[in-house]
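Q:
My hope is that you can spare some time for a protein that puzzles me. I hope you can help me see how the letters and the tokens relate. Thank you; the sequence and its tokens follow:
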Amino acid sequence: MDEDISGRKNELFQQLTLGIIKTLEKRPGIFGISLAEKQGADRSTVLSWEQKHSCFLPDDLKNFYLTSDGLLLTWKSKIAGASIPVGRMEINPVSGLTRIGGIMGSSSPGVPSLADLENDSDTEEEKLGETKPHFDQRSRIFELDPCQGYGKVCIVYKDTKPVLPAHYPEVWFLDRSLQWHFLAENFSSYYRVMLMHLGLPQWQYSFTDIGLSPQAQQWFNHYAPIRYDLDFDSYRDLTSEESNGQANNMQLDSGRVFKGKSDKRKQPSNQAAKKKVPMLAGKPQPMLGQRSTGAMPQISSKATK
């Protein structure tokens, strides 16, 4: 009986992680793969969180929490005989969905708050053509992944109104300079992208104009070179669209990103063909996350039974 229960749990967690554990086990140099087994959250706990914050969790995130109250998957790499912690995929439990910002000013005039950072951001958004999250009452922001201190992945309810419940959050990355970077339209899309990046260090920065650090680039080149190239291609397509004035209407081709990249390349112009400029060793980093219409299969609520 205990073996049957253990087998069903292992099968459930394999489904929950979309087989990423087996993928990691096949990679040379990866060992020490650890997946913390977590019980599903009580439905009453989820409902209590929604009532407290006046926010409805989307069905995909709610079903995830009813299946497993959070996620923590880590793995290590062995280099020159040394064990180095590398990969980390983390999603806070329901109790860890803490709110960021949301306070209009501070009760003490000498103490600044995150809402004080809201100055001329509206003008910047008009230029970019995209509404970013706000630390004041216009958005409700909750931490989804602490990212080991190099930023925060958050679910963001935008254009919120006082008292009224909020729906349909997006997933954004908040870097250490308190700048926002779009990651995904919903939790399912973010969850899939997180798994496809293998939890490599600072992978979220591949969707920012900051780019990956040299050390993070080394890990990508070693364990996910194709993913690094795809992120770079996304950056190239974005900058090309922006130069043509079409960036606001661009959509990410999920079939291309998740199934492979095309071998087609843009032909260089006649002037460029005549005079070739030596390229530097490094590649520029993706500037912005792109909105994806693709999503991983919904986590069925039947798995919670």
Observations:
- Confidence is low (pLDDT under 50) at residues 246-250, 257-266, 271-288, 293-297.
- The chain is about 30% helix and 15% strand.
